[in-house]
Amino acid sequence: xxTVLLLVTVPIFILSGCARIQxxxxxxxxxxxxxxxxxxxxxxxxxxxxxxxxxxxNQVIESPVNIIGETVGGINQIYFQLLDAFDRVFASSTVxxxxxxxxxxxxxxxxxxxxxxxxxxxxxxSLDRAGLKIxxxxxxxxxxxxxxxxxTLFESRTGNKTNNCSQVYPLEREIPFxxxxxxxxxxxxxxxxxxxxxxxxxxxxxxxxxxxxxxxxIKDATATVDFVYTPNNNIKFDRCRLNAIRAQISETIKxxxxxxxxxxxxxxxx
Length: 270
Prior knowledge:
Order of helices and strands: HEEEEEEEEEEEHHEEEHE
Number of strands: 15
Number of helices: 4
CATH architecture of the largest domain: Sandwich
Distance between the termini: 96 Å
Strand order of the largest sheet: 3-9-8-5-6
Largest sheet: 5 strands, mixed
């Protein structure tokens, strides 16, 4: 008789526990929707006191992306950031959480404009009392849609009345996505100008057809760039043109990183 009683009691205990798991938490904030705990088979990404249930790692997302998860330990505020492939933040938001202080659930829709890359990262984190990031959870994600990259080149221009050969002007150009943005930008500098750019008065002093980028290294605020150049007897380089070329390369590179000095060499020779 005692054996039968134990067999009946145990299943009742398990079922009552499942019923408690399916209960919803208290409301969190006006712009945050409460979600149930994940069903069997779902995956949680956990970093200390922050848990993300959705999106999953490497998931393809579009705007607005629904970020769902939990916090434990009484976190009152969490932060979201979307970063592109170059670790640049292009969307962010904050959620206030007013829950039990033990285990609270959040569901937030983060809107964002088209990123300049097909993939990037989602960061979810909180801040300590000093305002520093803690509990940082990083998820790689892909974007369903993205826009072309925009890079800034520096070129000479007709009508320059300063008589300064080193005077160059910004030219914005759209290019396809490239994982190495620095190299892609310098490669653009070596391409001939379009008819539209020439009509606007821009002049590219680099012998693009005979020049290729060999290496570009940026370290400690110094950029070292080397080009492979095939000599062409039909191209003449006076001091003014050389100064213009140096200015084009230096100013273009300085727009890409915190560079104070640019060292330029050709065929490994300064």
